[in-house]
Each structure stands twice: as structure tokens, then as C-alpha cells.
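Notes for week 9. Today we move from apo structures to complexes. The key idea is that a small molecule is not decoration. When we ask for a structure prediction with flavin mononucleotide present, the ligand SMILES becomes part of the input, just like the chain. The input block below holds both the sequence and the ligand string. Read it once before you look at the output, and try to guess where the molecule might sit.
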Amino acid sequence: MSDRVSSSSVGMERQIEIYMNGLQGKAPDLPVDPDRLRIAAREVLDDRAWGYLDGGAGSGDTMSANRAAFRRWRLRPRMLQGVEDRDLHVQVLGSTIRAPMMFAPIGVLSIIHPAAEVAVAEAASTLNLPLVLSTAASRSMEEVADAQGDGARWFQLYWGKNDDVTASMVERAEASGYSAIVVTLDTTVLSWRDRDLENGYLPFLEGEGLGNYFSDPAFRRALDEPPEENPTQAILYFASMFSNPALTWDDLQWLRDLTDLPIVLKGILDPQDAKRAAEARVDGIIVSNHGGRQVDGAIAALDALPVVADAVGDQIEVFFDSGIRRGSDILKALALGARAVLVGRPYCHGLAIAGADGASEMMLNLLSDLDLTLGLTGCSSIDDVTRDLLLRADAEGGVEI
Ligand SMILES: Cc1cc2nc3c(=O)[nH]c(=O)nc-3n(C[C@H](O)[C@H](O)[C@H](O)COP(=O)(O)O)c2cc1C
Ligand SMILES: O=C(O)C(=O)c1ccccc1
């Protein structure tokens, strides 16, 4: 019995910490509710940076569809399952990670907080959760790697028009301990983004701009003048080359030959594309609509997930992002076929308010919610999270049984 009384979990520890602080009149540093956290972040950011972070493509329909899709699934908890010891570990690309959660790649974080990606790396290191670093980071990938230490990190690649820059980025990622290359496919161009257009806002010239490009030797070679002397020219060059709309499935072989690191394709929504990815011998895919920022009117990422997961079976690993806000969202995504999820805007909200501590506090709260909700549904491990945990909600908000 005494064992049981002393047993604990990340979720309970976090609850106890918050409640004990509450007894001493101390509120948590950040709102716990993700919607209120979002509003709190809005208050500390300037309108243009806020519009960029929070906005979606066009009408924002896809961004709201991402959230609505989670509400159309309900969890049906099982009782008396012996859920005292819960194990959140999962295997991703051959490595074990603490929980099925990662920091999504978000570009130019210096517009959110001066410590930018370095702060996110510290948060990832504190929590021992993987970081996926954007090519468009405002700090160099080496500096970010130093800040993170030996934690798991993947590098997100914008595969642009200059092969030397692409090869150089991949080489630097290998040399600085990134263990996978995530190729983002859904950003062949930046979408029509109403708020940024109205604000005339491109984030790349703000703060430290695009430090990861500016520090790249191949990128620097392509410029007439160094980016420190002529940042506008450097940004224009970046904008003209960071992505390459001419790429086709056949080009993947070039990247496959370039590196031995696992390759993960980000932005898959269609089961045929998922099959193509498996045939192309990549190692994984991320089902994502870029947080609703690219194709206005695209399907919710969660609606794509079960179909895509079925299409590839066990051939390649399936990850998910777009709209994850709560522990129950993670459970739903796992039940529908994801091995792990990426979280985007919410950690930026924490970062905006309280730097590295804010980003890690937000992710710890999500991890705690996941741990408790996992146990409450009758699961002790991530393997227990299967599709029969879910029922589809009907239009009235009940469930279809
Ligand atoms: C401000 C912002 C910048 C982003 N930059 C990148 C990027 O550089 N590379 C990338 O692959 N995805 C980028 N994304 C997409 C995220 O990786 C992720 O797919 C998305 O944020 C997930 O949705 P969520 O914000 O609802 O969690 C960005 C998203 C936001 C909000
Ligand atoms: O804004 C984005 O969604 C994005 O993916 C991006 C693209 C280029 C640079 C920085 C971020």
C-alpha cells in the first residue's frame, strides 16, 4: 500500500506543484487554458508579429476546421484497467523519446522573443522532448544544438532552388547532431495571408532575421554583399530561393543520395501521396496542413490522418500536427494512427510571455494533461491507445454508436 501512496506521475506532480503554489497564493506563471494562454500572448506581442503567428491562409477556414475535427471524435474511457504506472515513451525513427510530443518547426522566432530558438532548445532540453528546428530559424542550427545539448533534434529543411545551399544545410545538420531531415512539402510558395498582406509584414527583416541562412557558407557565397551589410538583398534572395515549386517526387532520390539520415516528409494529406512517400523509401511522413497556414479550404489534418495511416500501414512512420492543444487531442491523434505529434503555436505563446520557461511550462502542462487523460481512459502505455477508444460525435454532439 505504501508504494501506491507514494506513486506519482508527471501529471500528478504538476498538479500538486500548481495546487501547492495556489495554497501559498501563487498563481501559475502562464494561463493553463490554451485559449487564455493565446490571448495572454497576444497582449505581449506587437500586432504584426501576432498577425503572423496567429494567422492562417485566407479566410482561416482550415485553421478552424483543424479544431472542429477534434471535437467530432469522443473518447470512450475503460475502467479498472490498473493504470497506476503509466509509460508515455514511444519509438520514433529507431530512438526512444519520453512522450509522443515534439516542438514543431517554426521559423523566425526572434519576432516572438529575443532568445528565439535558443530558448526553445533550452525548453526541449529541460523537458527532454525532441525539437524540430526550422531552416528559417533566426539562430544558426549550431547555436541551437549547443543550447539543447544531447537531446533529440531533427532538422526541418526548406528544399530550395540552390542545391549548394540545400546540401550545405543537410551537411551542417549532420555535423551538429540533428538525427533526421524533415522536408516540408506544403510550402512551395507562401500562401495568400490576409493579415500579413494588410500589415505589409514579412517577418524576415525583423529581429535577427534569418540567422540560420545568414550563417550558411553556401548562402553567403550566393550573395554579392554579406547579409550584415545588405540585409534587404539577403532577404530578397532568400524569398526567391527558399522553396522550389518545380520539385517532383522524382527529385527525392537526390536528397536520398545526399544523406544517410532518416527523411520525413511534412505536409501530407492525401493517401496517394502517402503511398508515394512509402515507395520513395523515406522513413516517415507528417500529416499536416501547416496549422491551416497554406491552403485555405484544405481538409482538417485530423480528417486526413486515419486514411493516410491506413494507406501506409507499417511501411513508414506517421506523425501528425495542426491543431493540437490538449492532452485529449494527442490521444485522438494517436488513436487515429499517429506515432507522435508536433505542437506549433502554443509553445510560441509560452515563449512570447516567459521565454524558455514559458515554452517549457506550456509543454509540461500539455504533457501532464496527456499523462492524466491517458490513465483516465484506461491506458497505461501509448500502445494501449487504439482506434476502439474513439467514437465519432454526431451533429447533435452525442456519439454514433
Ligand atoms: C509562425 C509559424 C511559422 C512556421 N514556420 C514553419 C517553418 O519554418 N517550417 C515548417 O515546416 N513549418 C512551419 N510552420 C508550421 C508548423 O511546423 C506546424 O505545422 C503548425 O504550426 C502546426 O499547427 P499548430 O500551430 O496548430 O500546432 C510554422 C507555423 C507557424 C504558426
Ligand atoms: O510562415 C510559415 O508558415 C512558414 O512556414 C515559413 C516559411 C518561410 C520562412 C519562415 C516561416
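The chain has a mean pLDDT of 96.
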